[in-house]
């Protein structure tokens, strides 16, 4: 786990360095630089997100909040940079890459809300995990795909690092989804029962064990 | 739940699969550079294309008016400086015609684009077409702006006998020539 976090942190640092070194940002406004760097850090944070669901749910919740905030900064900064172009990108006539970003952003909001509302939704553990996890996987594919298609600060080696971080996240989503959906949570999956102890290591999160305080979620 | 064992609800699975299909279809049906935007750049140089781009006006011919494409009026401002060079390395040119395919001299055309030193919001000029209906703007090469180098060409002066039209098209950073022709329809 620490190794993964280190790899993602290294990847994020590489993205930031490559973006700052690229000629694209040499004459750019501070707003565009902030937007780009926020997105770089968000990709690195996304890379560890699925892996954190294994016994690090508190961190997963906090990092999720950070990703949502970074993406908000990214979008708002682009809007400040050029409202006309931002609105065009968000419209249905925008380029493919912008449409990918639009879907990724909407899905990120949904995924974040699912995380915040987990305890209030009358869904089974398996259903919640499947929806939250698969939509998060879509966020990764669409968000990183949009960054790869964009010509600008992260071409060449930047694209390679983006693909590597996106791959780390996508593999994590698949591995964790398969793992948690194959091994039934306590209570047969019909309803969560926080008092029941997990039967196998790794098949239940701290949420299931009732070890995440509501305060952590609210702050996420 | 259909079973007592674990497993996501079939409705949830179906909804996610449907969502993936809808997103895939929406991406498949989108234009790579935005609706109506096409590659207008050439790396060959200025002397190659414009001569070929001007077909002889045939009596009785009719040209379809240029349709404003989405994003064409992004960052448009009426008060562009007249005939200011925007640098060197790229020439944006094209022929302005009426719907009978006749070249229109003396028609103002505004060009704006992002270059290394000028943002799309500031870097603009308005030029008049020559006797052959052709306008020409020299500029620094286009650089990516919001993900791709693009160039805007518009005709929208007050009191013009021609309808306003805005174009946004894309090119490559290394292109030395961009050709955007306009066919204008009368106002009434």
Any key phrases for this structure?
heterodimer; A: 220 residues; mainly alpha; 8 helices; globular; disordered C terminus; B: 188 residues; alpha+beta; Immunoglobulin-like; 2 domains; five-stranded mixed beta sheet; five-stranded antiparallel beta sheet; 10 strands
* Largest interface, chains and sizes: A-B, 45 and 42 residues
Name of the CATH class of the largest domain in chain B: Mainly Beta
In round numbers, the mean pLDDT of chain A is 86
What's the pLDDT, averaged over the residues of chain B?
Answer: 89
Number of strands of chain B: 10
Radius of gyration of chain A: 18 Å
Task: Describe the oligomeric state of these chains in a short phrase.
Answer: heterodimer
Number of strands of chain A: 0
CATH architecture of the largest domain in chain B: Sandwich
Question: Helical residue percent of chain B?
Answer: 10-25%
The domain tally of chain B reads: 2
Task: Report on the architecture of this protein.
Chain B: This is Carboxypeptidase regulatory-like domain-containing protein. Chain B: InterPro entries: Intradiol_dOase_core. Chain B: It comes from Actinomycetospora lemnae. Chain B: Keywords: Membrane, Transmembrane, Transmembrane helix. Chain A: It comes from Actinomycetospora lemnae. The complex is a heterodimer of chains A (220) and B (188). With 220 residues, chain A is an all-alpha fold. Chain A has one domain. Chain A contains eight helices and no strands. In chain A, helix 1 runs antiparallel to helix 7. The longest helix of chain A is centred in the C-terminal third of the chain and has 26 residues. With 188 residues, chain B is of the alpha+beta class. Chain B folds into two domains: 30 residues; 144 residues, Immunoglobulin-like, CATH 2.60.40.10. In chain B, the strands form two sheets. In chain B, strands 1, 2, 5, 9 and 10 form a five-stranded mixed beta sheet that branches. In chain B, strands 3, 4, 6, 7 and 8 form a five-stranded antiparallel beta sheet that branches. In chain B, a hairpin with a 2-residue loop joins strand 6 and strand 7. The longest helix of chain B is centred in the first third of the chain and has 19 residues. Chain B starts with 9 loop residues before the first helix and ends with a strand. In chain B, 38% of the residues are buried. The model of chain B has no long low-confidence stretch (mean pLDDT 89). The chains are: A mainly alpha (220), B alpha+beta (188).
């Amino acid at each position: 786990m620490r190794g993964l976090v280190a790899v993602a942190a290294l990847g994020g640092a590489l993205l930031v360095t490559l973006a700052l070194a690229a000629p694209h940002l040499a004459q750019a406004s501070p707003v565009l630089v902030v937007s780009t760097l926020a997105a770089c850090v968000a990709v690195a944070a996304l890379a560890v997100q699925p892996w954190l669901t294994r016994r690090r749910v508190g961190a997963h919740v906090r990092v999720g909040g950070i990703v949502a905030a970074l993406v908000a900064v990214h979008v708002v900064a682009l809007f400040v940079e050029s409202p006309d172009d931002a609105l065009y990108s968000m419209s249905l006539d925008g380029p493919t890459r912008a449409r990918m970003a639009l879907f990724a952003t909407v899905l990120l909001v949904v995924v974040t809300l699912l995380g915040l509302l987990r305890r209030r939704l009358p869904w089974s553990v398996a259903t919640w995990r499947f929806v939250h996890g698969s939509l998060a996987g879509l966020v990764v594919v669409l968000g990183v795909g949009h960054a790869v298609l964009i010509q600008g600060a992260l071409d060449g080696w930047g694209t390679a690092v983006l693909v590597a971080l996106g791959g780390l996240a996508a593999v994590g989503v698949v591995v964790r989804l398969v793992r948690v959906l194959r091994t039934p949570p306590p209570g047969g999956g019909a309803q969560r029962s926080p008092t029941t102890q997990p039967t196998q290591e790794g098949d239940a999160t701290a949420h299931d064990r009732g070890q995440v305080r509501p305060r952590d979620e609210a702050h996420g | 739940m259909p079973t007592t064992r674990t497993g996501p609800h079939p409705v949830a699975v179906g909804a996610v699969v449907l969502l993936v299909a809808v997103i895939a279809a929406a991406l498949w049906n989108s234009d790579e550079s935005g609706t109506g935007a096409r590659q207008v750049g050439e790396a060959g140089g200025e002397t190659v294309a414009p001569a070929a781009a001007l077909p002889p006006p045939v009596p009785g011919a009719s040209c379809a008016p240029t349709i404003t494409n989405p994003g064409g009026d992004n960052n448009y401002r009426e008060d562009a400086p007249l005939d200011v060079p925007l640098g060197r390395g790229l020439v944006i040119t094209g022929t302005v015609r009426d719907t009978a395919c006749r070249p229109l001299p003396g028609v103002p055309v505004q060009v704006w684009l992002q270059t290394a030193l000028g943002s799309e919001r500031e870097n603009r000029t308005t030029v008049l077409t020559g006797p052959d209906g052709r306008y020409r703007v020299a500029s620094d090469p286009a650089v990516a702006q919001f993900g791709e180098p693009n160039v805007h060409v518009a005709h929208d002066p007050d009191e013009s006998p021609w309808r306003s039209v805005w174009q946004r098209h894309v090119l490559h950073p290394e292109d030395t020539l961009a050709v955007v022709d306009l066919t204008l329809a009368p106002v009434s």
